[in-house]
Amino acid sequence: MKLHNLLVIYTDGVTEDRNEDHEDFGEARLLTQLQVAGGERSALTLSNIMQNLDEFVGSAPRHDDITCVGVRRN
Predict the structure, then answer these.
(1) Using the 8-state DSSP alphabet, how is residue 3 labeled?
(2) Cα separation of 20 and 69, whole Å?
(3) What's the predicted TM-score (pTM) here?
């Protein structure tokens, strides 16, 4: 799978964040977001990941810190 020279470093709080049904966001959802990103700017990719994560979690309480950093090489 080609991810367009993108490095993403994240804490487990991203993939282990849960929705109201106690379902984890998971690595598969994160990888899907990265595949959809294509060659867009890393700031936009991170913004989209965080927005998707917020929508997934909804009003469920957060239980861990969330850190996500992205770097794209042109």
Answers:
(1) -
(2) 26
(3) 0.86
pLDDT at residue 65 is higher than 90: yes
Take residue 7 and report the two structure tokens written for it.
């490095």
Q: What is the DSSP string of 15-74?
A: HT-B-TT--B-HHHHHHHHHHHHTT--HHHHHHHHHHHHHHHHTTSPP-S---EEEEE--
Q: 42-57 and 26-37 are packed helices; what angle lies between their axes, rounded to 10 degrees?
A: 140
C-alpha dihedral, 40 to 42 to 45 to 50, nearest 10°: -170
Q: Which of helix, strand or coil describes residue 9? A: strand
Span 29-54, pLDDT tens digits: 999 998 888 788 889 999 999 999 99
